[in-house]
Design a protein that fits this description.
single chain, alpha/beta, 9-stranded mixed sheet, 3-stranded antiparallel sheet, 17 strands, globular
Length: 442
């Protein structure tokens, strides 16, 4: 698809120039705005299996590394109280946050003792949807996001997830058992695997519809330089013409017809329709980065967006523990996202949420969206991307939704490349643990 290739190249080049990691003098993140409440993102970088497509900070699980890490994490979290942060929501990402369930629960309890926590979201893998884990999370965790990726056994084997996390049939059964324990279970899927066929995709969509989950995300497979070789060895070369076709299938199956099963919440997040009169309890988008424009993030490899700046934490576990022990936070670099680039970022996030309020844009930036971003608006109009384009708002046509998926996918790839810059300073041993762990763990 020519439009996709052109937009991918333009967006990638723009983000590459923008997201450059620079040294910093700060030892702590900025003080909080006393007039707002925040989400806190907490990164747990340990996994039982290192997936070939993942570029987040991750290490093969070893208890002797993980236990002191959790202790440091709780100390870093308490530093936020001194900076005035009012935390209302916790989001644990990874990695696999449930890899040490007792340590996770202790961290949640410490947070609730020190902040006004209203809601806790946790990512996990299907093998942890078992009684002891579910019982410990019950009452502590409201929203659980399960990294399923696909129910297809051949794909799970290619990703090295089948033997550790269970077959597609086992995962489906475990999801049904987990649903009653939480306000919401999100089934996190990936589409456009190179060996994924339309039949596999339709089967995945059927299982998502049947499993009873409150929410599902279908994000496109995206790459970074660090993961490209491993990804192509395990899964093959990504076909972006297929991506467009598959996105249309997902959108149509989940939200199409006279009686759709799901409603579109963002471009790739879908909430299950509830019976009339039943409250959705303010169902939050599981993608934390689009639910909050700014938030603090702690833990090795986490990225904090605050004050038009992305603060990046050290990827080294050794350095992480040392920094926290010395009374510092784990920052190691930063990049500014100001001026026109911040206008583009805000434009992208609003369209990812399916609607841009033109008046809100002008109020925020002191300039209309047409005057601020003339090239972007001209390109999208030429592609017939807007369903509504009036004085009040922008909404998206089906092709417009896909084009914004392309832009957001490229933005996430750009963040992966920022992570690579932070990872490049790791020692040989820690670098090998991230991508060649076989000789370093049991």
């Amino acid at each position: 698809m020519l439009k996709e290739r052109l937009l991918s190249r333009i967006t990638a080049d723009m983000i590459k120039k923008q997201l450059r990691l620079h040294p910093l003098e700060e030892t702590h993140m900025p003080k909080a705005d006393p007039n707002r409440s925040y989400m806190l993102y907490i990164h747990i970088p340990f996994c039982e299996v290192l997936c070939p497509y993942c570029s987040f900070n991750r290490y093969p699980f070893q208890e002797d590394l993980a236990r002191p890490y959790f202790e440091s994490l709780r100390k870093e979290m308490l530093m936020l109280t001194e900076l005035g942060y009012d935390i209302e929501t916790l989001y644990f990402g990874g990695g696999t946050p449930t890899v040490m369930i007792d340590e996770l629960c202790e961290t949640i309890d410490v947070a609730k003792d020190n902040f006004n926590i209203k809601e806790v979201s946790v990512e996990t893998n299907p093998n942890h949807l078992i009684g002891p884990y579910l019982e410990k999370m019950k009452g502590r965790v409201q929203r659980l996001s399960v990294g399923v990726q696909s129910f297809n056994n051949d794909l799970l084997k290619q990703m090295d997830r089948y033997h550790k996390y269970g077959s597609g049939e086992e995962i489906l059964e475990r999801l049904a058992e987990a649903n009653p324990y939480f306000t919401s279970v999100n089934v996190d899927m990936i589409f456009n695997f190179p060996t994924q066929t339309e039949d596999i995709l339709f089967d995945d969509l059927e299982k998502v519809s049947l499993c009873g989950c409150r929410q599902t995300t279908f994000s496109p497979l995206y790459k970074s330089n660090a993961t490209m070789k491993k990804l192509e060895q395990a899964l093959g070369v990504i076909d972006y013409d297929q991506e467009y076709r598959y996105y249309q299938i997902i959108d149509g199956v989940l939200t199409g017809g006279k009686d759709p099963i799901f409603d579109r919440e963002t471009l790739w997040t879908f909430n299950r329709r509830l019976p009339e009169g039943q409250d959705d309890q303010g169902l939050m988008v599981e993608e934390y980065a689009v639910s909050y424009e700014e938030y603090p993030a702690i833990g090795s490899g986490a990225i904090t967006p605050l004050n038009h700046t992305l603060f990046v934490n050290t990827f080294s576990l050794k350095e992480y523990n040392e920094k926290i022990a010395s009374g510092k936070m784990s920052l190691m670099g930063k990049t500014k996202v100001g001026g026109r680039n911040f206008e583009r970022y805000w434009f992208l996030l609003q369209l990812y949420h399916l609607r841009l309020d033109k008046k809100a844009f002008k109020e925020k930036f002191g300039i209309s969206v047409d005057a601020a971003l003339p090239a972007e608006m001209a390109f999208l109009r030429a592609c017939r991307a807007f369903e509504k384009d009036n004085v009040d708002e922008l909404t998206l046509t089906p092709i417009g939704r896909y084009l914004v998926v392309v832009m957001y996918r490229q933005f996430l790839s750009g963040l992966n490349n920022l992570r690579e810059q932070a990872r490049s300073v790791l020692s040989g041993a820690e670098s090998q643990l991230q991508f060649e762990p076989d000789n370093y763990c049991n």
